[in-house]
Specification:
Elements lengths: L5 H10 L3 E4 L8 H10 L7 E4 L8 E3 L5 H8 L5 H15 L5 H5 L2 H8 L4 E2 L9 E3 L20 E2 L3 E5 L6 E4 L3 E5 L2 E3 L7 H12 L3 E7 L3 H8 L8 H9 L4 E4 L6 E3 L4 E7 L6 E3 L2 E2 L5 E2 L2 E3 L1 E9 L5 E2 L9 H12 L1 H7 L4 E5 L9 E6 L6 H10 L9 E5 L8 H9 L3 H4 E7 L12 E8 L35 E4 L5 E6 L7 H9 L9 E6 L7 H11 L2 H4 E6 L2 E7 L22 H14 L9 H4 L13
Length: 629
């Protein structure tokens, strides 16, 4: 269904028991995000929250897409797989062979309804332009500061509209925007984003770049701004398909850009490509770590329009699970069939776990029929759109286990590492802090499929990986006193290690293996001292974030076998040629936690939820966005 406003969606959430209204004042600086974090980490994603008293005229809606039920309500479906099935039907319709003209013409009535989903520009005054401010002032909005060491307040749910100056093609992306002052923000688009590509073209042409930002409106529009669409596919065509109704657009007041007529807020402006970039950040990001300060373009505001009863949408990201995990889950399900139909026909299912923060881990199942097929799938997916940022990819031929992490770990710990690991290099997400260089590093593919006769003992995957050396000074080592835990039922050992500079790492590990006899661990994961190694999802989240496979995977020779050693500790600037600052784990400050605790009963008509940050604060090495090690 199509929503005519964010308020209409709020009414639907309330009708389904998915919304909590908070009528008393809550500070947009830290307090709103702290409360949202508590709800988002509940098993079912908690509730959407509407903060009605923000110290401004605008209420804040947050965690509105933070569960499978709320995602389905937003998309007007009963199940996230429904849309993938609809896309599959279209692909079947246009790809099915037809011999005669009559057969070809017979599909036109079916295709005609899809043409009605094309966006329409209306000349009427739009609801998003009920109030027009030609002297814009961003301070009127309840823009959130979400974490203590953020560089400032950030727009976190903006739909950023840009236009290719050469082709006129529109793009709608979601790029965070740090408020610099009342009329300027940062524009945090990474170099691989379409908005950045448009920027480079304006820079080459020496032209000002018009930009418009929409907030609110139909939640389908917000989802589409995050969707991994091909560059040539207009987000609003896709939105029309999802909501079964064309998106109504209107012309901006001061910029030559079309924006959603039903949005709650529109911020118009421009970027001057000749202007020097400005430092932006830090920002508590979706990886669960701070993304650090870097230089980005400056967005200048020329006009702000909004509804008379506008709602300000926001989200908070951090240590998973949070609202973005459910958005990513929708993407996983929606794009399963398009990937199968156009890229990987043998694909049977896919799982992108929330602890893999979208780009660190993908688990796929395939229908295997020939040797090398798992490697073929890895390479195909690593070359497909935003899947190029994937760092760890697991391929199995058993669809039933892709969400059974225990069974996957059992199979993983029983592998012949010489035959079933595939190391590669390629682009990584800019937010991946483990890579030696920003945006570029290594990947690891794991083949859990049945080994065919042609695949046996062909190539060893161990030789390209640097083995441990007694004489090499290691950054993270075991000493005589360390904590360890074993994944139940597996041959995987998790170790807390002190960070000292010693040469005995290999010897310490080999010596410790003897206590296990024939059931010795075959995979050993080393983590920093303060990581709770009894929490296996926490271990997985930290390890996937902290490992660059080619650098941090080593092999020990033991009893004619190979032991896989994974160094998932934090790395130190200047040690072992690592030349990046290491970000801190995101937790809320004690003052904000205490303030929310004290006011909870009078604020929230819901049982008390303790702060999730209490669990993670031991992992923080020092105050600040970076780790001083």
């Amino acid at each position: 269904m199509a929503f005519s406003s964010l308020s209409e969606f709020i009414s639907v959430l309330e009708k389904h028991g998915e919304l909590i209204r908070v009528s008393k004042f809550v500070d947009p600086v830290l307090e709103i995000s702290e409360i949202a974090d508590r709800f988002s980490k509940l098993p079912d994603g908690g509730k959407a929250l509407l903060f009605e008293n923000t110290g401004t005229e605008f209420p804040v809606l947050i965690n509105s897409l933070g569960s499978e039920k709320r995602m389905c309500l937003a998309l007007g479906i009963n199940n996230l797989d429904d849309i993938s099935s609809d896309i599959a039907a279209i692909l079947e319709l246009i790809s099915e062979p037809r011999q005669t003209w009559l057969q070809k013409l017979s599909v036109l009535p079916s295709l005609a309804k899809y043409a009605s989903y094309m966006p329409v520009v209306s000349g009427k005054k739009a609801p998003s332009q009920e109030v027009i401010a030609l002297n814009p002032d961003l301070s009127k909005f309840p823009v959130l500061k979400t974490w203590p060491f953020d560089g400032g307040r950030f727009f976190t749910f903006p739909l950023v509209h840009t236009v290719d100056p050469e082709t006129g093609t529109r793009n709608v992306g979601m790029y965070r925007m740090q408020v610099f002052d009342n009329t300027t923000t940062g524009m945090h688009w990474h170099r691989h984003k379409t908005g950045a590509s448009h920027f480079e073209k304006y820079k080459k042409a020496r032209q000002l770049m018009p930009v418009a930002v929409a907030l609110g409106g139909d939640p389908v529009l917000t989802y589409c701004a995050t969707a991994p669409l091909p560059d040539q596919l207009d987000e609003y065509i896709f939105a029309g398909f999802l909501r079964k109704s064309a998106v109504q657009l209107t012309k901006c007041i001061t910029q030559n850009i079309d924006v959603p007529a039903d949005a709650d807020i529109i911020i118009e402006g421009y970027i001057d490509p000749a202007e020097e970039f400005r430092p932006e950040g830090p920002f508590g990001d979706h990886t669960g770590f701070y993304s650090l300060t870097d230089n980005y373009p400056v967005f200048h505001i020329t006009c702000i329009t909004h509804r008379k009863m506008a709602v300000f949408p926001a989200t908070v990201v951090g240590i998973p699970p949070m609202e973005d995990a459910w958005i990513a889950k929708a993407t996983e399900r929606i794009f399963l069939w398009p990937i199968k139909k156009t890229i990987v026909p043998e694909l049977t299912d896919m799982n992108i776990p929330e602890f893999g923060v979208a780009h660190n881990l993908t688990i796929t199942s395939i229908d295997k029929t020939f040797p090398g097929q798992a490697e073929k799938v890895m390479n195909a997916l690593w070359g497909a759109g935003q899947m190029m940022f994937n760092k760890f990819m697991v391929v199995t031929d058993n669809k039933d286990i892709i969400e059974d992490y225990h069974k996957i770990l059992i199979k993983l710990s029983e592998l012949d590492f010489t035959q079933h690991l595939v190391f590669a290099k390629g682009p990584l997400d800019v937010l991946d802090h483990s890579a030696q260089n920003m945006g570029f590093g290594s990947k690891l593919g794991v083949d859990l499929t049945l080994t065919l006769p042609e695949e046996e003992s062909v190539y060893s995957q161990i030789s390209p990986v640097k083995p441990l050396n007694h004489s090499e000074q290691k950054e993270s080592i075991l000493n005589s006193e360390y904590s360890k835990s074993r994944f139940p039922g597996t041959r995987i050992l998790i170790i807390n290690a002190n960070k000292k500079f010693r040469k005995s790492l290999e010897g310490d590990i080999l010596q410790s293996l003897h206590e296990y006899g024939a059931d010795y661990p075959r995979i050993i994961v080393i983590l920093d001292e303060k990581v709770d190694i009894q929490d296996y999802r926490l271990v997985s989240w930290v390890a996937l974030n902290n490992i660059d496979p080619l650098r941090d995977c080593s092999f020990l020779s033991y009893d004619e076998d190979h032991i896989l050693l994974l160094d998932a500790t934090s790395k130190t600037f200047g040690i072992n040629q690592f030349k990046r600052f290491w970000p801190n784990v995101i937790v809320m400050d004690n003052l904000t936690i205490a303030s929310v605790d004290k006011k909870w009963t009078e604020l929230i008509p819901f049982q008390f939820i303790p702060s999730p940050s209490l669990k993670f604060r031991e992992m923080v090495n020092n105050p600040g966005a970076t780790v001083n090690t």
